[in-house]
């Protein structure tokens, strides 16, 4: 009733505006697009209502919330063609005047599946028409609109053009996926509590429940989400009635959504949110400092020690200069550790599964590091001289811009290494609140910079350093060797990540940069002006090669359990053509049923022995990220989502679809029942 009254009030207020705008273009442009213009007889074809609201306007979800109406469709279809229900992408929230609205403020696409009758002759024209009635609003007014949409399909082979497939794949990513497991709900004291199955080891950032069941919850009421083992517990104010079931969509911050159907049942109590234990944070901070300190003597950090040693030697006995250089160096180290830690936390909050040193998983970063380390090696070898730009010196305290940049470089190259105490400290950082996590990343930088700080601020330690002299030039040349070895190692990593083409690009860029730096060194030796001009041009040209580097893994990673390989339709067809028995299963990290079946049945010794005796090949499709290609394959087997288990016996025309709950005995007897194995 509240939604109806709000909608009537909005329409009443909008009536004068609607009359004035009647001759104007619609505020929500809609296009009817078919995934295939030549659907096969007896098959299905997906139509998209691709919509784009005008700036400042929004359309509505199936359940519009406290105000609004859902879209209605009136179809005109050829005989025998039927249209399914309208499917909506995941919406977002918009609160206006205390009323909660579930809306789309940017481009979105709704899906409808058409079912074609069998027996249609190829070439038959199928005119499709639909009248869409919907509401479009700004924050002040609402205007009911209608759109007459049409397209013509021609019966054919169901082929889809690559461009159309890519477009529909993009739209499908916004559609909620079936959760695969039943949820439960309970109403207690006016509160609605919903228990959604969700693996305890999987992140669920920013969850929000969009209800489809009208009146199940108070739409504008805040929602709290807690954990109880493998269950997300959502609690909010009830809507005043107790429905027979509650349907809706669980949305996460990364844009993913999951269809939820909850039935009355027990909902576990969410674990109480414990107060932050600062003693644990301090222990983790101490571990990070100690880990960073030990990192200074790890082999992977040794090339950077050359830069530290030269900087300390240059400080000599000037106490003020030593302290200034130590502080600048430490600031550079800590700043980079904080920046890398912040980026890491941001990526994980966005749903990415990344860890420390994540930046080195990108071959373009390796490419840049290869150039950087090579330039440092040539500098130490005496090919050219390097001085910090004036702007950097002015920004760094005491004019120690060179020390600041050296510290930043040390942290960027050194932190991918790990040592004692680091793993536990950084692991704790990933589960702590942001402020506490950044404190631990700063502790890692502090530990890495601690030797430099100690020598800069303790005169007794500084007096033990050798006095500056001609020996420093010889030491520089000697210390260029580990830097060249580091560059060689980086070139090898680049080849592993980007293949031969990437390695050749990297070595070519190194050659260009080296020639440019040699030219700069020659001009410096002759005292010529603009000595850095050749180096600047050469480095820019070399860095341009980064744009051409692409990741090319040497080989696909195999799944360890049962010797399984990643699923693809080509791999499946190849194995079936070789008359091999195949077990294909489709899973996702967020699917509790999938994980239970994998641990309790699939990944057991009984099944492994039976499959090995029977020569069974195993393929696994990971649908965690909603891969559209896997989604289409799953749909072809009359399943809306995971889990899906298929057994392909040798010579069988179709696979056997196994139950969603598996046992080791059920899987172990598959090879023997189909006459394979010994």
UniProtKB/TrEMBL annotation:
Pfam families reported for this sequence: DsbD_N (PF11412), DsbD_TM (PF02683), Thioredoxin_7 (PF13899)
UniProt name for this protein: Thiol:disulfide interchange protein
Transmembrane annotation, as ranges: 280-305, 326-345, 365-386, 407-432, 438-461, 473-494, 500-519, 531-549
Compartments (UniProt record): Membrane
Span of the signal peptide: 1-19
UniProt KW Metal-binding keyword: no
Native species: Sphingomonas spermidinifaciens
All copies of domain Thiol:disulfide interchange protein DsbD N-terminal, residue ranges: 40-152
InterPro entries tied to this protein: Cyt_c_assmbl_TM_dom, DsbD_gamma, DsbDN, Thioredoxin-like_sf
